[in-house]
Write a structure and sequence with these properties.
alpha/beta; 42% helix
Length: 360
């Protein structure tokens, strides 16, 4: 691991001897969850972080929409520094919103008035939901068409991305055959890797990479934390959560039950990893780990809007209407702005959440 990581672009986030960092800066790692269009919340968070020149990003672990946000950020930084990253992220999400006009999955005219922006009242969504229970994507989409592939190819030069050295990027996908997680590193990232990380098996054929087939990384890590622990130096990990861990009330309708099952299952592996991190942190605090060890103190942080995000059901993750995308972006930006005002001084010094309370 290079001590003096260099970037191919002037004005990028990293520094070397000729370009010292600000006196008061913090280096962090990012863990970015997946969740379809809800990834626009993460876009808002990242936009606010990139606007703060005191924040430097060493590593990113991303799954599904988090993988795409991470890849866009890394490429944008290489291409044009902080402003370049902000620009390419905005282009991606704005073009996702523009593409929604051609999507059959349109929210009902009154959905925004109900404040949940779901597709629960969309005839096309219900028709597809029914068809997906009878037919697989191998029958419904035999060509393997993916609407996001062209957008990724247009916005990201993957040759440039694979050569990036200023940030470490880790993308998770689930091996269909073995059930194990595979974490792709920067040098391995292609459009297929990003699409594999976001491959919901009800919607798309498994993505083949190196003779193996992959589904959404969220099944085994949403996102996975261990690459940030073992391959990065920064002690601070910031999780951008878009799948609520806790909800205020027990779901009672069939749709609400299905939505809650979805959020629990996609948080399960992350919760187990966090319990391990919490346990090791407790052992370190109690000085119960002695002798030679590569373990280090990790300061953990979360940016989330659980109450707001809990209002949006699973079907809203397929809603890319510009109004909804902008709402999520604004929410993420505000949450990050408030979090930095309250917790910036804790970075590098202490966790801003109680791991025992949150994950046990």
């Amino acid at each position: 691991m290079d001590d003096d990581i260099k970037t191919p672009a002037a004005g990028a986030q990293t520094w070397n001897a000729k370009s010292p960092p600000p006196e008061d800066y913090r280096t962090i790692n990012l863990a970015l969850q997946g969740g379809g269009s809800h990834g626009a919340f993460t876009w808002g968070v990242l936009d606010r972080l990139l606007a703060d020149k005191r924040i430097f990003i060493e590593g990113i672990s991303g799954t599904s929409a988090g993988a795409m946000n991470g890849a866009l950020l890394a490429f944008g930084m290489a291409h044009g520094g902080r402003d370049g990253a902000r620009e390419v992220l905005r282009k991606f999400w704005e073009r996702m919103g523009e593409a929604s006009r051609y999507s059959p999955f349109q929210p009902a005219p009154f959905a925004h008035l109900m404040d949940n922006h779901s597709l629960d009242h969309s005839p096309a969504y219900h028709a597809f939901d029914f068809m997906s229970r009878l037919f697989s994507p191998y029958q419904l989409n035999p060509s393997g068409y993916h609407p996001v592939r062209e957008l990724l190819d247009d916005l990201i030069d993957f040759d440039v991305l694979r050569s990036v050295r200023h940030v470490r990027l880790f993308i998770s996908a689930t091996n269909v055959r073995t059930g194990k997680i595979r974490v792709f590193t920067m040098k391995e990232i292609t459009p297929d890797v990003l699409l594999a990380s976001a491959c919901l098996p009800q919607l798309f054929k498994a993505v083949e990479i190196d003779g193996e087939h992959y589904w959404d990384g969220g099944f085994m890590g949403n996102p996975t934390m261990f690459p940030l622990l073992y391959q990065c130096k920064a002690n601070d990990i910031l999780l951008v959560e878009i799948n609520p861990i806790a909800v205020d009330k027990v779901p009672q309708t069939a749709r609400d039950i299905a939505d809650r099952m979805n959020s629990i299952s996609f948080n399960a592996t992350m919760m187990r990893e966090m319990r391990t991190i919490a346990f090791v942190t407790q052992m370190l605090d109690q000085h119960r780990l002695t002798g030679r060890s590569h373990l280090r103190r990790i300061y953990f942080h979360m940016m989330h809007a659980e109450k707001e995000m809990a209002r949006y059901g699973a079907s809203s993750k397929m809603n890319v209407h510009p109004r909804f995308i902008e709402l999520l972006y604004t929410l993420g930006y505000r949450v990050a702005d408030e979090w930095l005002a309250e917790n910036y001084d804790k970075l590098g010094r202490e966790s801003s959440i109680d791991l025992q309370k949150m994950f046990f």
